Amino acid sequence: MVILILVDDEIVLRLVKNALESFKKERKSWILEGFPRTKVIFIKTQAISMQKWGFLPDCFFILNSDLKTIVDAIREKILSPDYATVGALQEFTPEAIENYIQLTINNYNLNIKEIKSLNKDFYYELDTNVPFEDLVETMLTIAHVKVKVNAPIRMPRVIFLGPPGKC
């Protein structure tokens, strides 16, 4: 049987820090996908580390979707031939796959709960069941408003958090 585990947080944090420092030097924008994806107890560590490095977001967008869409997206992603662990998951029974999906959703919900508690004034929940153009327009409006008036001109620093399987 194959066991799926997450990469150690210290390794992930070091890789993220190095990448963000490189982008900062080159004055490039960046997007973090799938971060934080960690044990819930380490989310505060990741948030504190990012603050120490000077990578403070202007806001978080939490993209919400209905449960059926999330479950279908996770199942489609993990059973896809392009997914890295497809060989391992094909060995699992349908019940094991459903358990994996439920565990993924539970971990995501715990992570989002912690992120909300750490960033009370800086997150916005958006419904993904609207036309894409409307969603983008809403995000651009919010991100623009959050940038301080007297601050130097720069791209807003935004972190997008969406349900598992959707990215």
Question: Count the helices. How many?
Answer: 6
Q: What string gives the helices and strands in order?
A: HHEHHHEHE
Mean pLDDT: 76
Tally of individual domains: 1
The amount of helix comes to: 40-55%
Strand numbers in spatial order across the main sheet: 2-1-3
Major sheet characteristics: 3 strands, parallel
Strand fraction: 5-15%
Principal-axes geometry comes out as: globular
The beta-strand count equals 3
The end-to-end distance, rounded to whole angstroms, is 27 Å
In the predicted model, the low-confidence regions spanning at least 5 consecutive residues are none
Helix/sheet category: mainly alpha
Please render the helix and strand layout as text:
Elements: H1 9-25, H2 43-53, E1 59-64, H3 67-79, H4 86-90, H5 94-118, E2 123-127, H6 132-146, E3 158-161
Parallel strand pairs: 1-2, 1-3
Helix pairs in contact: 1-2, 3-5
Provide a quick synopsis of the model.
51% of the residues lie in helices and 9% in strands.
What would the keywords be for this entry?
167 residues, mainly alpha, three-stranded parallel sheet, 6 helices, 3 strands, 9% strand
What report would you give on this structure?
The protein is globular. The mean pLDDT is 76. It starts with 8 loop residues before the first helix and ends in a 6-residue tail after the last strand. It contains 6 helices and 3 strands. It is mainly alpha-helical and 167 residues long. The protein has one domain. Strands 2-1-3 form a 3-stranded parallel beta sheet, with helices on one face. Helix 1 packs parallel to helix 2. The longest helix is centred in the middle third of the chain and has 25 residues.
